Amino acid sequence: MSALPDTMQALVLKHDGYSGTAEGPTIADLKDWVSLERIAVPKPDGRQVLVRIGLANVNPSDLHYIKGEYGQPRRKGVAAGFEAMGEVVAAGDDPAAAQLVGQRVAVSIARNGTGAWAQYALTDAGAVVPLAREMRDEDAAALIVNPLSAWAMVHLAREYGANAFVMTAGASQLCKLMASLARDMGMHAIAVVRREEHRGMLEGLGAGTVLNTAREDFEDMLLQAMKQNQPKMLLDAVADNHSATIFSAMPAGARWVIYGKLSQEAPRLPSLGQMVFMKKVIEGFWLTEWLGRATAEQRVQAFTEVQKRFISGAWKTDVAQTLSLDEAPDRLADALEGMNRGKILLRP
Fold it and tell me: Distance between CA 249 and CA 226 in Å, rounded?
Protein backbone atom coordinates (compact mmCIF):
# COMPACT_ATOMS: atom_id res chain seq x y z
CA MET A 1 0.00 0.00 0.00
CA SER A 2 1.39 3.39 -1.02
CA ALA A 3 2.45 5.93 1.58
CA LEU A 4 -0.22 8.29 2.81
CA PRO A 5 -0.01 12.04 2.09
CA ASP A 6 0.52 14.51 4.91
CA THR A 7 -2.37 16.78 3.89
CA MET A 8 -5.76 16.43 2.26
CA GLN A 9 -8.58 18.50 0.82
CA ALA A 10 -11.70 18.79 3.00
CA LEU A 11 -14.89 20.79 3.53
CA VAL A 12 -14.17 22.08 7.03
CA LEU A 13 -16.63 23.38 9.63
CA LYS A 14 -16.44 27.14 10.29
CA HIS A 15 -18.33 27.13 13.61
CA ASP A 16 -18.29 25.36 16.98
CA GLY A 17 -21.09 23.93 19.08
CA TYR A 18 -24.81 24.51 18.75
CA SER A 19 -26.42 27.52 17.08
CA GLY A 20 -29.66 27.54 19.07
CA THR A 21 -31.66 27.83 15.83
CA ALA A 22 -34.19 25.40 14.35
CA GLU A 23 -34.39 26.48 10.72
CA GLY A 24 -34.37 22.99 9.21
CA PRO A 25 -32.12 21.27 6.64
CA THR A 26 -31.90 24.06 4.08
CA ILE A 27 -28.96 26.28 3.14
CA ALA A 28 -28.65 29.28 0.83
CA ASP A 29 -24.85 29.11 0.56
CA LEU A 30 -22.62 26.26 1.73
CA LYS A 31 -19.78 28.74 2.25
CA ASP A 32 -21.68 30.18 5.23
CA TRP A 33 -21.03 26.94 7.09
CA VAL A 34 -17.94 25.19 5.70
CA SER A 35 -14.79 26.16 3.80
CA LEU A 36 -12.69 24.18 1.32
CA GLU A 37 -9.24 23.80 2.90
CA ARG A 38 -6.11 21.69 2.96
CA ILE A 39 -5.68 20.14 6.40
CA ALA A 40 -3.57 17.40 7.94
CA VAL A 41 -4.51 13.79 7.23
CA PRO A 42 -5.63 12.42 10.63
CA LYS A 43 -3.78 9.51 12.21
CA PRO A 44 -5.68 6.53 13.65
CA ASP A 45 -5.15 5.37 17.21
CA GLY A 46 -6.46 2.36 19.15
CA ARG A 47 -9.75 1.21 17.57
CA GLN A 48 -9.77 3.92 14.93
CA VAL A 49 -9.44 3.35 11.18
CA LEU A 50 -8.52 5.78 8.41
CA VAL A 51 -10.65 5.50 5.25
CA ARG A 52 -9.74 6.85 1.82
CA ILE A 53 -13.10 8.23 0.71
CA GLY A 54 -14.48 7.14 -2.65
CA LEU A 55 -17.94 8.74 -2.47
CA ALA A 56 -19.51 10.72 0.35
CA ASN A 57 -23.21 11.30 0.90
CA VAL A 58 -25.23 14.43 1.77
CA ASN A 59 -28.13 13.81 4.15
CA PRO A 60 -30.55 16.25 5.86
CA SER A 61 -28.76 15.39 9.12
CA ASP A 62 -25.53 16.80 7.63
CA LEU A 63 -27.27 20.11 6.96
CA HIS A 64 -28.74 20.23 10.45
CA TYR A 65 -25.25 19.49 11.81
CA ILE A 66 -23.28 22.13 9.91
CA LYS A 67 -25.91 24.68 11.02
CA GLY A 68 -25.55 23.66 14.68
CA GLU A 69 -29.04 22.14 14.89
CA TYR A 70 -28.17 18.46 15.30
CA GLY A 71 -27.91 16.23 18.38
CA GLN A 72 -24.14 16.64 18.71
CA PRO A 73 -22.03 19.82 18.70
CA ARG A 74 -19.98 21.02 15.75
CA ARG A 75 -16.18 21.02 15.95
CA LYS A 76 -14.64 24.00 14.19
CA GLY A 77 -11.75 23.06 11.87
CA VAL A 78 -12.91 19.42 11.43
CA ALA A 79 -14.35 18.11 8.17
CA ALA A 80 -18.15 17.81 7.92
CA GLY A 81 -20.09 14.78 6.65
CA PHE A 82 -21.50 11.71 8.42
CA GLU A 83 -21.60 9.00 5.72
CA ALA A 84 -19.49 7.66 2.85
CA MET A 85 -17.80 4.65 1.30
CA GLY A 86 -14.16 3.97 0.63
CA GLU A 87 -11.16 1.81 1.52
CA VAL A 88 -9.53 1.38 4.94
CA VAL A 89 -5.90 2.42 4.44
CA ALA A 90 -4.59 2.58 8.02
CA ALA A 91 -5.62 1.57 11.53
CA GLY A 92 -4.69 1.91 15.18
CA ASP A 93 -3.08 -0.90 17.15
CA ASP A 94 -6.35 -2.62 18.10
CA PRO A 95 -6.54 -6.04 16.35
CA ALA A 96 -10.17 -5.53 15.29
CA ALA A 97 -9.21 -2.28 13.58
CA ALA A 98 -6.01 -3.63 12.01
CA GLN A 99 -7.82 -6.49 10.27
CA LEU A 100 -9.97 -4.00 8.35
CA VAL A 101 -7.01 -2.49 6.46
CA GLY A 102 -7.44 -3.04 2.73
CA GLN A 103 -11.18 -3.63 2.92
CA ARG A 104 -13.81 -1.69 0.97
CA VAL A 105 -16.30 -0.37 3.50
CA ALA A 106 -19.33 1.80 4.14
CA VAL A 107 -18.48 4.52 6.65
CA SER A 108 -20.41 6.15 9.47
CA ILE A 109 -18.49 8.82 11.35
CA ALA A 110 -18.23 8.16 15.08
CA ARG A 111 -18.33 11.07 17.56
CA ASN A 112 -14.53 11.08 17.95
CA GLY A 113 -13.93 10.81 14.19
CA THR A 114 -13.42 13.30 11.38
CA GLY A 115 -15.99 14.02 8.67
CA ALA A 116 -16.53 12.24 5.39
CA TRP A 117 -16.59 15.37 3.18
CA ALA A 118 -12.85 14.95 2.71
CA GLN A 119 -10.28 12.81 0.94
CA TYR A 120 -9.71 10.80 4.15
CA ALA A 121 -11.88 10.23 7.21
CA LEU A 122 -11.18 8.86 10.68
CA THR A 123 -13.75 6.78 12.52
CA ASP A 124 -14.15 3.90 14.95
CA ALA A 125 -13.69 0.36 13.65
CA GLY A 126 -17.22 -0.41 14.82
CA ALA A 127 -18.62 2.34 12.59
CA VAL A 128 -17.54 0.79 9.27
CA VAL A 129 -19.28 -2.02 7.41
CA PRO A 130 -17.31 -4.35 5.11
CA LEU A 131 -18.99 -4.38 1.72
CA ALA A 132 -19.97 -7.27 -0.49
CA ARG A 133 -18.11 -7.21 -3.81
CA GLU A 134 -21.39 -6.80 -5.71
CA MET A 135 -22.36 -3.54 -3.96
CA ARG A 136 -22.30 -0.47 -6.22
CA ASP A 137 -20.30 2.49 -4.92
CA GLU A 138 -23.42 4.69 -5.10
CA ASP A 139 -25.39 2.26 -2.92
CA ALA A 140 -22.46 1.79 -0.55
CA ALA A 141 -22.05 5.56 -0.03
CA ALA A 142 -25.66 5.76 1.18
CA LEU A 143 -25.82 2.37 2.91
CA ILE A 144 -26.12 3.34 6.57
CA VAL A 145 -28.24 6.41 7.34
CA ASN A 146 -31.26 5.81 5.10
CA PRO A 147 -31.27 2.04 4.45
CA LEU A 148 -30.53 1.05 8.02
CA SER A 149 -33.06 3.57 9.35
CA ALA A 150 -35.63 2.13 6.92
CA TRP A 151 -34.87 -1.43 8.02
CA ALA A 152 -34.90 -0.52 11.72
CA MET A 153 -38.11 1.53 11.65
CA VAL A 154 -40.17 -0.92 9.59
CA HIS A 155 -39.06 -3.71 11.94
CA LEU A 156 -39.90 -1.43 14.90
CA ALA A 157 -43.43 -1.12 13.52
CA ARG A 158 -43.64 -4.89 13.05
CA GLU A 159 -42.41 -5.51 16.61
CA TYR A 160 -45.13 -3.16 17.86
CA GLY A 161 -47.71 -5.32 16.12
CA ALA A 162 -48.47 -2.85 13.35
CA ASN A 163 -49.66 -4.40 10.10
CA ALA A 164 -49.89 -0.87 8.69
CA PHE A 165 -47.96 2.36 9.30
CA VAL A 166 -47.94 5.94 7.99
CA MET A 167 -44.79 7.61 6.64
CA THR A 168 -44.42 11.32 5.87
CA ALA A 169 -42.04 12.79 3.25
CA GLY A 170 -43.22 9.84 1.19
CA ALA A 171 -41.18 10.73 -1.90
CA SER A 172 -37.87 10.76 0.01
CA GLN A 173 -35.18 8.17 -0.63
CA LEU A 174 -35.76 6.68 2.83
CA CYS A 175 -39.52 6.28 2.31
CA LYS A 176 -38.97 4.66 -1.08
CA LEU A 177 -36.90 2.04 0.73
CA MET A 178 -39.54 1.60 3.43
CA ALA A 179 -42.34 1.20 0.86
CA SER A 180 -40.77 -1.78 -0.88
CA LEU A 181 -39.57 -3.37 2.37
CA ALA A 182 -43.06 -3.10 3.88
CA ARG A 183 -44.56 -4.72 0.79
CA ASP A 184 -42.09 -7.60 0.99
CA MET A 185 -42.89 -8.04 4.71
CA GLY A 186 -46.63 -8.14 4.03
CA MET A 187 -47.27 -4.73 5.64
CA HIS A 188 -49.34 -1.79 4.37
CA ALA A 189 -47.39 1.48 4.00
CA ILE A 190 -49.44 4.69 3.85
CA ALA A 191 -47.27 7.35 2.19
CA VAL A 192 -47.98 11.06 2.71
CA VAL A 193 -46.75 13.39 -0.07
CA ARG A 194 -47.23 16.99 -1.22
CA ARG A 195 -47.41 16.41 -4.99
CA GLU A 196 -49.72 14.21 -7.03
CA GLU A 197 -46.86 13.32 -9.40
CA HIS A 198 -45.30 11.18 -6.65
CA ARG A 199 -48.31 8.86 -6.44
CA GLY A 200 -47.46 6.53 -9.33
CA MET A 201 -43.83 6.11 -8.29
CA LEU A 202 -44.72 5.18 -4.71
CA GLU A 203 -47.51 2.84 -5.71
CA GLY A 204 -45.07 1.14 -8.07
CA LEU A 205 -42.61 0.66 -5.20
CA GLY A 206 -45.24 -0.95 -2.99
CA ALA A 207 -46.95 1.82 -1.01
CA GLY A 208 -50.45 0.55 -0.34
CA THR A 209 -52.01 4.01 0.00
CA VAL A 210 -50.76 7.46 -1.04
CA LEU A 211 -52.25 10.60 0.56
CA ASN A 212 -51.58 14.07 -0.86
CA THR A 213 -51.70 16.90 1.71
CA ALA A 214 -52.20 19.46 -1.10
CA ARG A 215 -55.58 18.00 -2.11
CA GLU A 216 -58.77 19.53 -0.80
CA ASP A 217 -60.06 16.10 0.18
CA PHE A 218 -56.89 15.19 2.15
CA GLU A 219 -58.61 14.96 5.55
CA ASP A 220 -61.49 12.90 4.13
CA MET A 221 -59.05 10.51 2.45
CA LEU A 222 -57.00 10.39 5.66
CA LEU A 223 -59.99 9.34 7.77
CA GLN A 224 -60.89 6.69 5.21
CA ALA A 225 -57.33 5.30 5.21
CA MET A 226 -57.28 5.21 9.03
CA LYS A 227 -60.59 3.34 9.15
CA GLN A 228 -59.58 0.82 6.50
CA ASN A 229 -56.01 0.09 7.60
CA GLN A 230 -55.83 0.93 11.34
CA PRO A 231 -52.13 1.96 11.26
CA LYS A 232 -50.48 1.86 14.68
CA MET A 233 -47.36 3.87 13.89
CA LEU A 234 -46.55 7.22 12.25
CA LEU A 235 -42.94 7.37 11.02
CA ASP A 236 -42.43 11.11 10.65
CA ALA A 237 -39.63 13.08 8.98
CA VAL A 238 -41.56 16.36 8.73
CA ALA A 239 -43.11 17.11 12.15
CA ASP A 240 -45.58 19.79 11.08
CA ASN A 241 -49.31 20.39 11.51
CA HIS A 242 -50.13 17.77 8.88
CA SER A 243 -48.25 15.28 11.08
CA ALA A 244 -50.34 16.32 14.08
CA THR A 245 -53.55 15.95 12.04
CA ILE A 246 -52.53 12.46 10.96
CA PHE A 247 -51.67 11.39 14.50
CA SER A 248 -54.97 12.73 15.84
CA ALA A 249 -56.82 10.61 13.28
CA MET A 250 -54.94 7.40 14.13
CA PRO A 251 -56.49 4.68 16.31
CA ALA A 252 -55.96 4.07 20.03
CA GLY A 253 -52.46 2.91 20.94
CA ALA A 254 -50.81 4.71 18.01
CA ARG A 255 -47.19 5.85 18.28
CA TRP A 256 -45.86 9.01 16.63
CA VAL A 257 -42.17 8.32 15.95
CA ILE A 258 -40.30 11.48 14.89
CA TYR A 259 -36.96 10.91 13.16
CA GLY A 260 -36.56 14.20 11.28
CA LYS A 261 -37.70 17.84 11.22
CA LEU A 262 -37.95 18.92 7.58
CA SER A 263 -40.52 21.61 8.40
CA GLN A 264 -39.86 24.80 10.36
CA GLU A 265 -43.49 24.77 11.49
CA ALA A 266 -44.18 23.88 15.11
CA PRO A 267 -46.92 21.22 15.10
CA ARG A 268 -50.04 21.62 17.23
CA LEU A 269 -50.26 18.83 19.77
CA PRO A 270 -53.35 16.66 19.44
CA SER A 271 -55.82 16.60 22.31
CA LEU A 272 -53.80 15.55 25.35
CA GLY A 273 -56.72 13.37 26.34
CA GLN A 274 -55.62 11.01 23.55
CA MET A 275 -52.43 10.32 25.51
CA VAL A 276 -54.47 9.37 28.57
CA PHE A 277 -57.61 7.69 27.30
CA MET A 278 -56.34 6.32 23.96
CA LYS A 279 -52.82 5.47 25.21
CA LYS A 280 -51.13 7.27 22.34
CA VAL A 281 -47.38 7.98 22.57
CA ILE A 282 -45.02 10.53 20.96
CA GLU A 283 -41.35 9.54 20.81
CA GLY A 284 -38.17 9.97 18.77
CA PHE A 285 -35.96 7.68 16.71
CA TRP A 286 -32.23 8.32 16.26
CA LEU A 287 -30.25 5.70 14.36
CA THR A 288 -27.13 6.34 16.46
CA GLU A 289 -29.05 5.45 19.61
CA TRP A 290 -30.64 2.39 17.94
CA LEU A 291 -27.22 1.08 16.88
CA GLY A 292 -25.92 1.53 20.42
CA ARG A 293 -28.86 -0.42 21.83
CA ALA A 294 -28.89 -3.24 19.24
CA THR A 295 -27.01 -6.46 19.93
CA ALA A 296 -24.07 -7.47 17.76
CA GLU A 297 -26.28 -10.15 16.19
CA GLN A 298 -28.99 -7.59 15.36
CA ARG A 299 -26.47 -5.25 13.73
CA VAL A 300 -24.96 -8.06 11.64
CA GLN A 301 -28.43 -9.20 10.55
CA ALA A 302 -29.46 -5.65 9.62
CA PHE A 303 -26.36 -4.89 7.55
CA THR A 304 -26.48 -8.31 5.87
CA GLU A 305 -30.13 -7.95 4.90
CA VAL A 306 -29.70 -4.35 3.74
CA GLN A 307 -26.83 -5.28 1.41
CA LYS A 308 -28.80 -8.26 0.05
CA ARG A 309 -31.66 -5.94 -0.89
CA PHE A 310 -29.33 -3.69 -2.88
CA ILE A 311 -27.53 -6.57 -4.57
CA SER A 312 -30.82 -8.22 -5.55
CA GLY A 313 -32.18 -4.98 -6.99
CA ALA A 314 -35.01 -4.74 -4.44
CA TRP A 315 -33.44 -1.44 -3.35
CA LYS A 316 -31.52 1.10 -5.41
CA THR A 317 -30.01 4.47 -4.54
CA ASP A 318 -31.28 7.18 -6.88
CA VAL A 319 -28.54 9.76 -7.49
CA ALA A 320 -29.56 13.27 -8.54
CA GLN A 321 -26.04 14.69 -8.84
CA THR A 322 -22.40 13.98 -8.03
CA LEU A 323 -20.09 16.91 -7.24
CA SER A 324 -16.37 17.14 -6.56
CA LEU A 325 -15.17 18.75 -3.32
CA ASP A 326 -13.95 21.68 -5.45
CA GLU A 327 -17.44 22.18 -6.91
CA ALA A 328 -19.37 21.79 -3.66
CA PRO A 329 -18.91 25.30 -2.14
CA ASP A 330 -20.48 26.97 -5.18
CA ARG A 331 -22.90 24.29 -6.40
CA LEU A 332 -24.15 22.20 -3.46
CA ALA A 333 -26.87 24.62 -2.30
CA ASP A 334 -28.45 24.66 -5.78
CA ALA A 335 -28.05 20.88 -6.12
CA LEU A 336 -30.02 20.36 -2.91
CA GLU A 337 -33.10 21.69 -4.70
CA GLY A 338 -33.19 18.33 -6.47
CA MET A 339 -32.85 16.11 -3.41
CA ASN A 340 -36.34 14.68 -3.94
CA ARG A 341 -35.06 13.20 -7.22
CA GLY A 342 -32.20 11.38 -5.50
CA LYS A 343 -29.07 11.64 -3.40
CA ILE A 344 -26.39 14.29 -3.75
CA LEU A 345 -22.96 12.64 -3.61
CA LEU A 346 -19.49 14.16 -3.22
CA ARG A 347 -16.43 12.68 -4.92
CA PRO A 348 -13.06 13.74 -3.41
Answer: 7
List the beta strands (DSSP E) in 226-342. 233-236, 255-258, 281-284, 319-324
Residue-level length of the chain: 348
* Mean pLDDT across 334-348: 88
Contact between 108 and 117 under an 8 Å Cβ cutoff? The reply is: no
Which neighbouring-strand residues pair with 87? 52, 104
What three-state secondary structure class fits 89? Answer: strand
The separation between CA 79 and the C-alpha centre of its own chain, rounded to angstroms, equals 19
- Asked if 174 and 237 touch (Cβ cutoff 8 Å), the reply is yes
Q: Are 261 and 220 in contact (CB under 8 A)?
A: no
Query: Phi-psi category of 342—alpha, beta or left, where left has phi over 0 and alpha has psi -120 to 50?
Result: left
> Full-prediction pTM beyond 0.85?
yes
Question: What does the mean pLDDT of the chain come to?
Answer: 94
